[in-house]
Structure formats: C-alpha cells, structure tokens
Write a structure and sequence with these properties.
With 268 residues, this protein is mainly α. Helix content is 66%, strand content 2%. It folds into two domains: 146 residues; 95 residues, no CATH class. Helix 3 packs antiparallel against helix 8. This is Tetraspanin.
Length: 268
C-alpha cells in the first residue's frame, strides 16, 4: 500500500509540475509580450518606469516558477529528497506571496481605482503626443472602447495635444466664438471612422460647442474601469486554479519526501 501511495504521489507530482511548467512558460511569455507591446490596457495605470519594473518582476516570477517546476519533476523522477524539499519550500514562499498580494490588492482596490482615473486624465492632458507609449495606449483605449478623452472630448481642450494655437498652460476661455483660441483638437482615434473625411472635418471642436456625431462622445475612464473590473472574475478563477495546483504540489511533494524516506529506511 505504501509503495502504491508513493508511486501515485510521484507520478501525480510530475503531472502537477508539468502543469506548473506550462503556467511558468505562459507567465514568461506574457511578461515578454507586455514588455514589447505597450498597448495593454493595464499599462495606463502606472508610470512607464514603474510599469516596466512590475513586468520585470513578473518575468522573474515566471522564471522562478519554471525552476520550481523543474525541481518538482526532477525530484519526483529521481527520488531526490533535496530537490523535493527545495521545491516544497520555494512553493510555500510563492503561495504566501500570492496570498499577501491578493490581500493587498483587495484592501487597496479603491486606491488603484483612483490611480487609474488620475493616470488617464494625466495622459490626456500632458502625455499624449509627447510620450510615444502613452500615445499608443490612449489610441488603443479610445479606438477599442469607443470613447474620447478621460471624461469626454472636452478633456482635450487645454491639453498639450488639443491646443491649436495657444500655450496650453494659459487659462481657457469658456466663451463660444469662431476664434482659434476657442478651438481644440481631438486625436484621430476619437473618430468613429478613422481616416474618413468626416473624421478630419470633425476633429477640430469649439470649446463648449456641440460634438460632431462622427466623434465618440463618452469618456474613457469609466469604460476602462468597467472593462478591467469585468475581467476580475476571470482573473480570480485563474488565480484560484493556480493556487489549487500549487497546494496540490505541496501535498504531493510532502508525501513523496515522507514515503521516499520510509522506503529508504526499509531498504536499509
């Protein structure tokens, strides 16, 4: 019975380690993709340097998971208690770190929401057209979510990009007139049909004027928040499944260590 239990745990641990290996490769590939493609929606919530630092941490975590998966496979296949113990300890640390991270995210969700809103507004006002990666992500958001500006097209008035002929640091007149000082420009990604003649004609808007039907009239901030929150359940399900795999790996590694040790003593 003990031999059967050990063999079952051994092969089950190899399967779990293989699954964990696939997860690790996925994390590494995702981190590398996000490092090269700056148009992911979540990138808008962080400063460029902080975002890249977070991705490097994610990449390092993926590499660590890969090493742990290898240790699990090797330890189970070669009956190496040293590898199994190392696998157990590192996996336990990973689980604790994941639970702590989940707790931090839960307790700081309001702060993250505020940060996201502030970041979108700052991108519209100061960074669009100035910082290439921010310009790309904002264009992606506006085109993909069918929106314009942080809270609406009027957010582009007074922005560095939207000002047509005056210093954006100067106060904006709220009177409606035909003067260039009372005009602002929205990006092409605000158009419902990009590259169309209607888009080109409608991008120059009057302050406090009527927005053309060719331009998206809704703001992006709330749509972005709703989109990210809508993915929360999927992320939680994936995280829970990964946690189950990790805990199962811990249990199997512990069984293999105990049964392997007992088997060695029996042979002796």
């Amino acid at each position: 019975m003990g031999t059967f239990c050990y063999n079952f745990s051994k092969y089950a641990l190899m399967v779990v380690s293989f699954v964990f290996l696939i997860i690790a490769i996925t994390v590494i590939a995702l981190a590398a993709w996000m490092l090269t493609d700056k148009t992911f929606l979540v990138s808008i919530a962080q400063e460029s340097n902080n975002y890249d630092a977070g991705l490097y941490i994610l990449l390092a975590a993926g590499i660590l998971m890969f090493i742990v998966a290898f240790l699990g496979c090797y330890g189970a296949f070669k009956h190496s208690r040293c590898s199994l113990i190392t696998f157990f300890v590192i996996m336990l640390v990973i689980i604790v770190a994941q639970i702590a991270s989940a707790g931090w995210l839960y307790t700081n969700c309001d702060r993250l929401d505020e940060l996201l809103r502030s970041s979108v507004s700052n991108t519209v006002k100061k960074e669009y057209g100035e910082v290439e990666c921010r310009t790309q992500i904002m264009d992606t958001i506006q085109s993909g979510l069918e929106c314009c500006g942080a809270n609406g097209p009027a957010d582009w008035a007074g922005s560095k990009y939207g000002s047509l002929s005056k210093d954006p640091s100067l106060p904006i007149s709220l009177t409606v007139s035909a003067d260039a000082d009372n005009m602002y420009k929205v990006p092409e990604s605000c158009c419902k049909e990009i590259h169309s003649s209607a888009c080109n004609e409608s991008r120059n808007l009057k302050i406090a004027g009527i927005v053309s039907p060719a331009i998206y009239n809704e703001g992006c901030t709330q749509k972005l928040v709703d989109t990210l929150k809508g993915q929360t359940s999927n992320v939680m399900i994936i995280a829970l499944l990964v946690l189950i795999v990790e805990i199962l790996g811990l249990i199997l590694a512990l069984i293999c260590c105990c049964e392997g040790g007992a088997s060695d003593r029996y042979k002796a």
